What we know:
By secondary structure, this protein is mostly loops. The chain has helices spanning 3-11, 35-38, and strands spanning 21-23, 51-53, 58-59, 62-63.
Amino acid sequence: MTQADLVRLYFAKGDVYNSWSYCFNQQCPLAQECAHYLSVTYKNPEQTKGYAIYPDAYHDRKCEHFLQLHLTKMAYGFEKILDELKRKDE
């Protein structure tokens, strides 16, 4: 799954935090792998002000705010899995 796909999944619900920082730096070599840059596509057009990442953040071939999303597979619902296990009498 590409970084663009992960960003699309993350923003599909539309419940983005107001504190999310968008990056508009098209010249950044990391732009196509950065969630801050790719998320601009899903920015609400009615939002006209907010947090932004300045081009100065990219220096020494790194960006201070570079962010990649990762898909993590997690299990849940195992709180009671051992409830039916017979205990050894004490």
